[in-house]
Amino acid sequence: MRAASATMRAVAAVALAHSAAPAAAQRSDGYDLWLRYDPLPPAERASYRLLLRSAFFAGDSGSMQAAREELQRGVGAMVGAAPIAVASLGNADLIVGTPAALPALKSLGLPLNAAGPEGFVLRRIAWKGRDVIVVAGNSDVGVLRGIFALLRRIQTGQPLESLNVVEAPRYALRLLNHWDNLDRTVERGYAGQSLWDWHKLPGWVDPRYTDYARANASVGINGAVLNNVNASAEILTPPYLEKVAAIAGVLRPWGVRTYLSARFTAPIAIGGLKTADPLDPQVQRWWRSKADSIYRLIPDFGGFLIKANSEGQPGPQDYGRSHADGANMIADALAPHGGTVMWRAFIYSPEEVDRARSAYDEFKPLDGKFRSNVILQVKNGPIDFQPREPFHPLFGQMPATRVGMEVQITKEYLGFATHLAFLGALWEEVLDSRTATPRARVAGEISALAGVANIGTDRNWTGSHFDQANWYAFGRLAWNPTLRSSDIAQEWSRMTWGNDRQVTETVVPMMLRSRDAVVDYMTPLGLTHLMATGHHYGPGPWVDDLERRDWNPTYYHRATRDGIGFDRTAGGSNAVSQYAGAVQHCWSSLECVPDRYLLWFHHVPWTKRLRSGRTLWADMVKRYDDGVSAVREMRRDWASLNGRIDAERYREVTAFLKIQEQEAKWWRDASIAYFQSINGLPLPPGHAPPEHALEHYKSLRFPYAPGN
Ligand code: BDP
Which positions carry the signal peptide feature in this UniProt record (predicted)? Predict the structure, then answer.
């Protein structure tokens, strides 16, 4: 009865082989992400091993098999021996299942009500005279998430003595948005090609899709939009839907549902219709029958993500209809199958007085007009995934609409894959922002979280080792937006770089400072969107000749000889009036607005004294320098870990930090040179002049920068 299967023996053998090497010497190319399951120190192993000798799994669904294999893989590698799967409860240390599959669980008084459909309960209890650990959920996927939570505890060295945990996700939809094209390029992708090998699908289903799904499952991400929001209609043709179905089949057991971006004019492009007017009955019929055919192939299909009437994409306004008309028509096609439409609020027109006002002006009047299976997907800030923005004014102000937040995990505006910028801090700041609306904080105003993925075919998945932390943090915050980014960084660091205390105590502070460093060397004090044209690589604050005025950096900073900043108060665009009560009041006032949003809301004289006692100009220069120094310090801190991190990953991070320092200095120098050319002011004492003249920075060209 206790005979170990061949797989389990293999897992144990691998684990033993691993255990021979000291932790820091474990070679890694980053493929394992945070699921490395490094061997624990011998003393810890022994104590965990006693608790995890055998396991009883109730049921055999795909999710249960995944749970069992993950437990065996993880415990086997960390503890040195995988739990033996036993056929009866009587001799199990670990009992895993749902009350539906294992009615005995019902008598234990577990708080399963609080776990919801996707959550779990972890409990240490005495059962029939035995000391056991129970991993229970209301669904097999919930159980799987419980197994990952248990493994995380072991990975981060937490005791299982008084295990008593119940968790349920805060948001029902926790989705990655891949901006992947059918030719395998990735818009704003810095980690290689698209994972989805469309040409070879469905005949060849890359095993990597399973590891992708595992990683998502481990942090609770429960959906993936496979293709770019700038969508090709081709994805909705029968051959591509077969390919999509093959991917969906891999993701399903891991609790990850498949979604697609849909092109609004697909009825014309692939349906042979003359119009895509949402009020045209033929168009409505086309979408209904398209939805029906998708659900025949993919019964748990999640729904569509739609970018309409934005940056040249077609949409309902092309037919004189509203965003609500468009969204509702597609929502009606999905409703019989339980599907959702995520309708993006990212729109802005050149006629607007201020781009930051656009989405609110367009969508606020539509509150209450959307079907219940529509989610309005709003970017975290009113412009566009910048290093820092105030929260979007639509949060909290669409009481009769389901609103989701979209963040960008890929670092289009924060230094691509080479700059270390831990975005957990950025998202925590937004989710935690006070709104002056009924739910008081942004996290309470939303019902879904979507993240533009940073994943590609690079061996380490995300283009850099530290960018893995952003994928991880996105999932953790979507599951529980009240988690602190410092705790997330700590967990991730331990799981990724090991439990060596010196490593954790060095890496976590680096991560927590990193995002502010980027803000400082790129866009301090509320400046925004000063990146070079198109690819957004490097500085371009001087650019003022683009086809649309609201694409020009000069539009955003409005620097003149006298001052700098975008006046969004009543005297200017009055975008600040879109915020509610106390928030509007504070941000309108120069006395109250925090420094971090100063130039976002106000046009301020260069000579104005800030809270620091310095003039605006002196403060700005100091911040540019602080940003560069912070990167220099990160390099120094990282160097102190030489020998404590495996050589391959150590070397790559070392090289990337060097690139980051060079580029931070480039940003600093180019920005100072440019703003000095506008204000004619000398540099404050103690700050070095830019290395080159402004013309040098203006002359730099990067036609092949990635992701464009
Ligand atoms: C911008 C990106 C562009 C995207 C757009 C969007 O530069 O590539 O298509 O966002 O979110 O930031 O639709």
Answer: 1-25
Structural contact between residues 647 and 624, judged by C-beta atoms closer than 8 angstroms: no
Nearest residue to 191 via CA among 536, 466, 455: 455
Question: What is the token pair recorded at 425?
Answer: 């801090």
- Read off the pTM: 0.96
Domain shared by 205 and 274, yes or no: yes
Task: Name the residue of 311, 392, 452 whose CB sits within 8 Å of the most ligand 1 atoms, as the mutation to test its pocket.
Answer: 311
pLDDT 10s digits, 471-502: 999 999 999 999 999 999 999 999 999 999 99
**Is residue 87 domain-resident?**
yes
Give the burial class of 177: count Cβ atoms within 10 A of its Cβ; 0-12 exposed, 13-18 middle, 19 or more buried: buried
Q: Which of 535, 309, 346, 369 is nearest to 450 (CA)?
A: 346
| Atom 10 (ligand 1) nearest CA | 384
Q: Say yes or no: 143 and 98 in one domain.
A: yes
SS3 343: strand
414-431 residue pLDDT tens? 999 999 999 999 999 999
Say if residue 20's pLDDT is above 80: no
pLDDT for 17 beyond 90? no
Residues 285 and 371 in one domain: yes
- The CATH number of whichever domain residue 95 belongs to comes to 3.30.379.10
Q: Which domain holds residue 338?
A: 173-497
Query: Which of 412, 537, 548 to mutate for ligand 1's pocket (most ligand atoms within 8 Å of CB)?
Result: 412
Q: Which protein residues are within 6 Å of ligand 1, measured from CB?
A: 187-188, 229-230, 307, 311, 346, 384-385, 412
Among 34-48, 206-220, 649-663, whose mean pLDDT is lowest? 34-48
Catalytic: 311?
Answer: yes
